[in-house]
Amino acid sequence: MKMGVIGYGRRIRNMLAEIRKVDPDCRVVAITDVRNDEIRAADPSLKDVTFYEDYRLMLTENKLDGLLIGTRCSMHATIAADVLPYGIPLFLEKPVATRMEDLIRLKSVADSTDTTVVVSFPLRTAPIVQLAKEIVNSGRIGTVEHVQAINNVPYGGVYYHHWYRDENETGGLFLQKATHDFDYIQFLLGERKPVRICAVTSKQIFKGTKPAGLKCRDCDERDTCPESMYCVHRAAHETPAGEYCCFAVDTGNEDSGSAIIQYDTGMHVAYSQNFVVRQRAGTRSCRLIGFRGTLEFDFYTNRITVHLHHTKRVETHQIGDDGEHFGGDAVLAHNFVEVMRGTAASLSPLQAGLDSALLCLKARESARTHTFQELRWD
């Protein structure tokens, strides 16, 4: 099958590798990227690929079985809205939009087409979430009446050292991170509908008075600053997240945020994320609480624990290590291949991406205005 790519970044390259594991006959025949010349020169395996300056020309000159969008975040919605009418099965990177006006336009176009979209939400397809969904649906813990979720991100430096520091591109860290968590939580809750949200954000650590544009290599503190790309590599043998100073005046993005989501049944979700923790302080966990029991899981340990409230029994389920994004990428890749073949529906449909982006944008607005925000499309 022939695929076209708009935005040939690392994320899409990883997904293409997963897709080829599913079906080695899937191949990229066309690419458009602002770095066309650089990409062509760096990868000889793309010698037979046609590069385009305009993605619309790419779509009209090729009969594609699938299309993948992996541009920077601010362009996802605009490009997706442009290509949906072509009817080509689409893999769309998250967040599906970073501005409300773009989100509304994308929804309007989506409502008028029947193009199948797989949104890049690998957490909902990860084996640990799939098993949690199975347990919730079994009724073992009763109806879920409260959710507590945490994402303490140990690799958060990427949002301050790299291009991700530009909030005009990211839209803020609810859209970068919470979009995944809001989606898998909604997936676990099923048909219940979120009706309002309130949120706060803080920027307590990654701020400062260093000059704009400062890079670690040009800083006198590069050998002592714990966030310096040199110190990070030396102390943890990790690849540095980027080269820009995270204590400069132009360092964007909040470094923590929390949200409360109320649902139509009266229940609520409490969510918090943090980008300061490092090493083993990282966690991405969730508790779903019902009258009969509590189910909790952590993506990093790949373990589910079920506490049955009215007995002394505690059940533990250990999930194997299944690869990138806790095994979710492989499932998404397999699903997208089937979507291109016309043999399956999307496991991560565009409506899920729209709903999650709406939550994130309303959370951002709530934090800015110190108000509850109603979750309405009007």
Automatic annotation (TrEMBL):
Gene3D superfamilies: Dihydrodipicolinate Reductase, domain 2 (3.30.360.10), NAD(P)-binding Rossmann-like Domain (3.40.50.720). It comes from the Bacteria. InterPro entries: Gfo/Idh/MocA-like_OxRdtase_N (IPR000683), Gfo/Idh/MocA_Oxidoreductases (IPR051450), GFO_IDH_MocA-like_dom (IPR055170), NAD(P)-bd_dom_sf (IPR036291). Residues 129-296 form the GFO/IDH/MocA-like oxidoreductase domain. Residues 2-120 form the Gfo/Idh/MocA-like oxidoreductase N-terminal domain. This is Gfo/Idh/MocA family oxidoreductase.
